[in-house]
Write a structure and sequence with these properties.
With 276 residues, the protein is mainly alpha-helical. It contains 8 helices and 8 strands, in the order ααααααββββααββββ. The protein has a domain at 103-275: Cytochrome P450 (Cytochrome p450), CATH 1.10.630.10.
Length: 276
């Protein structure tokens, strides 16, 4: 709130926010360097990655109102590099804590890993379709913790009538993702960690329209696909090679969050990784 009211003043005041400004400047510099490299090697007929496709769209834009601008490219890349990494880090740390709390869940995941992947080869994304329980556990971790409880600000693209209310175009909207991911009708006993929330009666993975861990609407997280892939590969790789052991009785592990505001903050904990 202070920064919004006095944006220029904070640049002259001492404090940890200056480290944030410095890091963001370095990140922007790195992103601009990568964009320049792509501009120099761009082949319109053979785009190689996200940046190439975005640059091609920028060249083909026919309106000044186009969303394909340099500022939007930089912001999207910043989202992919920083917000995604932070979200994955929090999800993995919280996920390991939940697995320590529920060793019976960990055992089932490892049993499925042994059956589908084995111990002598690395997991790949093709394995996920044959690992419904592991997929359900990963979804339940994200549902349970809600990394960004109140989402990031969005804006109404047009006038919208919602129930008896009119939301004018341009209105800033904050979506309460917690209210969706912890909806008691869709997820019975939502405050409990239960992979069964994403499994049907036959044990197959069950999709839910209420699963909005990566935001909602047109401006959903740009790194969702990459984050889903990394979470699956990282978690499966860890449990494929290590047994998790808590330093305290699992019954005494506290999985409540210290903070639930813009992001989630969990208790610090220690864990042993014991190689098979």
């Amino acid at each position: 709130m202070l920064y919004n009211a006095f944006p220029s003043l904070l640049h002259y005041l001492p404090g940890s926010h200056n480290i944030l400004f410095k890091n963001m400047t370095e990140q922007r510099k790195f992103i601009l360097e990568k964009i320049k490299e792509h501009q120099e090697s761009l082949d319109l007929n053979n785009p190689q990655d996200f940046i190439d496709y975005f640059l091609i769209k920028m060249e083909k834009k026919h309106s000044k109102q186009s969303e394909f601008t340099m500022d939007n490219l930089i912001t999207s890349l910043w989202d992919l590099l920083t917000a995604r990494i932070e979200a994955i880090s929090i999800t993995l740390r919280y996920g390991l804590l939940l697995l320590l709390k529920h060793p019976e869940v960990t055992a089932k995941v490892q049993e499925e890993i042994n059956h589908v992947v084995g111990r002598n080869q690395s997991p790949c994304m093709q394995d996920r379709s044959r690992m419904p329980y592991t997929d359900a556990v990963i979804h339940e971790i994200m549902r349970y913790i809600v990394v960004v409880p109140n989402n990031l600000p969005h804006a109404a693209a047009q006038d919208i009538k919602f129930r008896e209310y009119i939301i004018p175009k341009g209105t800033t909207i904050l979506t309460s993702l917690t209210s969706i991911l912890h909806d008691g009708k869709e997820f019975p006993n939502p405050e409990q960690f239960d992979p069964g929330h994403f499994l049907d009666k036959t044990g197959n993975f069950k999709k839910s329209d209420y699963f909005m861990a990566f935001s909602a609407g047109k401006r959903v997280c740009a790194g969702e696909g990459l984050a889903r892939m990394e979470l699956f590969l990282l978690l499966v790789s860890i449990l494929q090679h290590f047994t998790l052991k808590s330093l305290v009785d699992p019954k005494n592990i506290d999985t409540t969050q210290l903070l639930k505001a813009l992001g989630s903050l969990l208790h610090f904990y220690e864990v042993y990784f014991i190689a098979f």
